[in-house]
C-alpha cells in the first residue's frame, strides 16, 4: 500500500451536473420497496446511504443505473441534460470480477470493452494502492473475499466516470484496510458525484458530505446529516461521534438520548 504522497491526485474531471431523482417507485411482487421517493445528488458531492438490511438501499442504487427490471417508475434527470446511465461507474455488492481474467485484466476491463487502450500505469498504481501488486497476475478464484473486493474497488476507481455508485465497497475488509481504502476512495473520488451504500455509520460520516437513512416500508429517506469538514474525516472527533449516535437512533438503536450532547452543543 503506498503513502498518500505517491497516490493519484483527486479526480481530474470533476463532475459538473446535479442529478435529480423524482417520484421513484420500485415494486417487487406487487409490494412497494419505495414509492414517490425524491433525491438530489449535487455535482461533486459524496452521499452515503444507511438503512436496515432489506430496506431497499441496493435497489435505489440500481434504480439509478437503470438495472432494476419490472415494476419501476420515476424520473432521473441530469442538470446538463444527457442520460445518467452512460456516465456511471457501478460497484455492486457482488464483486462481478470476470473469473477468467487476472486482477490486472479485470481492473483494465472497462477500457478493453470500450475498445480503448488501457492506461497501464494508472492501473498498476491503483492495484498498488489497494495492496494487490503481488496478486495482479492472479485470477479471482485465487483471491480472498477482501482481495476480490479490493480488485473491484480498483476497477471502479479506474473508470474515472463522473458518477460513482458503490454498494458496500469495504464490507469484506479488515478494519485497517477498510480505513486505508476509505482514505483512497475519498482522495481519488474527490470532485466526483458519489453515492455509497454502507451499514457503518462511522464510515458514512467519514466519507459522506450528506448521510441519509432509508427506512420503513415503503421506504422513505430521512433528511441528510451533513458532517463538517472534508473527507476523510476524523472518526474520533466528538461531533462525528454525536452524529453517529443520531444515525444509530434513526436506525432504531436504543441509544441514551444525551450521548454526545456536549459535543453538538
Ligand atoms: N430482483 C428482485 N426481485 C424480487 N425481490 C427483490 C429483488 N431485488 C431485491 N428484492 C427485494 O427487495 C427488498 C430490498 O432489497 P435490497 O437488496 O435493495 O435491500 P438492501 O437495503 O440493499 O439490503 P442489504 O442491506 O441486506 O443489502 C428485499 O426485500 C429484497 O428481497
UniProtKB/TrEMBL annotation:
<feature type="domain" description="ABC transporter">
    <location>
        <begin position="19"/>
        <end position="241"/>
    </location>
</feature>
<keyword id="KW-0813">Transport</keyword>
<dbReference type="InterPro" id="IPR017871">
    <property type="entry name" value="ABC_transporter-like_CS"/>
</dbReference>
<dbReference type="InterPro" id="IPR003439">
    <property type="entry name" value="ABC_transporter-like_ATP-bd"/>
</dbReference>
<dbReference type="InterPro" id="IPR027417">
    <property type="entry name" value="P-loop_NTPase"/>
</dbReference>
<keyword id="KW-0547">Nucleotide-binding</keyword>
<keyword id="KW-0067">ATP-binding</keyword>
<dbReference type="InterPro" id="IPR003593">
    <property type="entry name" value="AAA+_ATPase"/>
</dbReference>
<comment type="similarity">
    <text>Belongs to the ABC transporter superfamily.</text>
</comment>
<dbReference type="InterPro" id="IPR050166">
    <property type="entry name" value="ABC_transporter_ATP-bind"/>
</dbReference>
<protein>
    <submittedName>
        <fullName>ABC transporter ATP-binding protein</fullName>
    </submittedName>
</protein>
<dbReference type="GO" id="GO:0005524">
    <property type="term" value="F:ATP binding"/>
</dbReference>
<dbReference type="Pfam" id="PF00005">
    <property type="entry name" value="ABC_tran"/>
</dbReference>
Amino acid at each position: 500500500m503506498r503513502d498518500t504522497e505517491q497516490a493519484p491526485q483527486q479526480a481530474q474531471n470533476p463532475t459538473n451536473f446535479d442529478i435529480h431523482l423524482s417520484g421513484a417507485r420500485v415494486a417487487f411482487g406487487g409490494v412497494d420497496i419505495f414509492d414517490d421517493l425524491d433525491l438530489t445528488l449535487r455535482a461533486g458531492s459524496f452521499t452515503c446511504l444507511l438503512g436496515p438490511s432489506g430496506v431497499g438501499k441496493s435497489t435505489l442504487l440500481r434504480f439509478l443505473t437503470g438495472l432494476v427490471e419490472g415494476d419501476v417508475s420515476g424520473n432521473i434527470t441530469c442538470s446538463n441534460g444527457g442520460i445518467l446511465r452512460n456516465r456511471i461507474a457501478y460497484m455492486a455488492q457482488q464483486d462481478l470480477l470476470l473469473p477468467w481474467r487476472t486482477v490486472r485484466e479485470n481492473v483494465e476491463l472497462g477500457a478493453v470493452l470500450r475498445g480503448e487502450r488501457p492506461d497501464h500505469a494508472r492501473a498498476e498504481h491503483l492495484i498498488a494502492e489497494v495492496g494487490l501488486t503481488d496478486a495482479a497476475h492472479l485470477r479471482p478464484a485465487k483471491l480472498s473475499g477482501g482481495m476480490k473486493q479490493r480488485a473491484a474497488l480498483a476497477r471502479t476507481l479506474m473508470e474515472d466516470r463522473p458518477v460513482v455508485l458503490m454498494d458496500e465497497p469495504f464490507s469484506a475488509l479488515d478494519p485497517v484496510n477498510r480505513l486505508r481504502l476509505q482514505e483512497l476512495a475519498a482522495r481519488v473520488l474527490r470532485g466526483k458525484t458519489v453515492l455509497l451504500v454502507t451499514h457503518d455509520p462511522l464510515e458514512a460520516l467519514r466519507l459522506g458530505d450528506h448521510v441519509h437513512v432509508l427506512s420503513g416500508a415503503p421506504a422513505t429517506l430521512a433528511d441528510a446529516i451533513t458532517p463538517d469538514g472534508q473527507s476523510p474525516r476524523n472518526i474520533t472527533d466528538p461531533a462525528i461521534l454525536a452524529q453517529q449516535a443520531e444515525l444509530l437512533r434513526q436506525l432504531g438503536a436504543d441509544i441514551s438520548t444525551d450521548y454526545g450532547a456536549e459535543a453538538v452543543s
